[in-house]
Amino acid sequence: MALCLATALVHVLLVFLHVAPPNPLSRQYSRQVNAWVFPLFEQNWRLFAPDPESVNRQISARTLHTAPDGTVRVSGWFDLSGVDNSAVRHDVFPSHTAQNTLRRAWSSYLETHGGDDRPRSERALMMQKYLTDIAADRITDHRGGTFESVQLRVITIPIAAPAEGPGPGSSAAAPKSVETRYLPWWKVTSHGN
């Protein structure tokens, strides 16, 4: 019970330092505070003022395994988004985690990496590892097997604006084209061994 109470107090203190205005204490311990808060306890307004999705993203992953004889085996693509969608679709009360873990990880990756997939901060490296770990864990849970590296592919499909109705003044904006983005191969901790 003392351990739970101590953990709760440390958690409250670290979250407070994260959301409080900058001060000497929060600056001095910013690395420790950020390590605790991101990505699981991040504070933002998305819960109260969500930014509606304007695109659908299909995030897939494939794995690479090098056998002892040196042959390299690359798996087929595994639809990570499909696993999430299926879990939500077949659950009467889907959890927030099941709905948003992968989507939020990808959004945070985009915010920290931009278009060139180069991490420019410790937070960017952390988000890259978080996204990689999600992919590796889900592949291991659903496919099994051994692999040392994982690659992600993100297909972005714009959502067309609803038509305003028939008439001379109505015009639905033409959706942008579908974009496919391949991320680099990333090493992962040993999975399936």
Describe the 3D structure.
- By secondary structure, the protein is an alpha+beta fold.
- It is 41% helix and 20% strand.
- The protein has 6 helices and 6 strands.
- Strand 1 (55-66) and strand 2 (72-74) form a beta hairpin.
- Helix 1 (2-19) crosses helix 3 (30-37) and helix 5 (96-113) packs across helix 6.
- It is globular and about 50 Å long.
- 12% of the residues are buried.
Mean pLDDT, all residues:
83
Distance N to C terminus: 36 Å
Number of helices: 6
The shape, in one word, is globular
Biggest sheet statistics: 6 strands, antiparallel
Q: Assign the structural class, choosing from mainly alpha, mainly beta, alpha/beta, alpha+beta, or little secondary structure.
A: alpha+beta
Sheet-strand content, in percent, reads: 15-25%
Count all strands and give the number. 6
Order of helices and strands: HHHEEEHHHEEE
Low-confidence stretches: 167-174
Helical content class: 40-55%
Radius of gyration: 21 Å
Q: Could you provide a short overview of the structure?
A:
It is built from 6 helices and 6 strands; from the N terminus they run αααβββαααβββ.
SSE diagram, text form:
Blueprint: H1 2-19, H2 24-28, H3 30-37, E1 55-66, E2 72-74, E3 78-79, H4 80-89, H5 96-113, H6 122-142, E4 147-158, E5 179-182, E6 186-191
Antiparallel strand pairs: 1-2, 1-3, 1-4, 4-5, 4-6
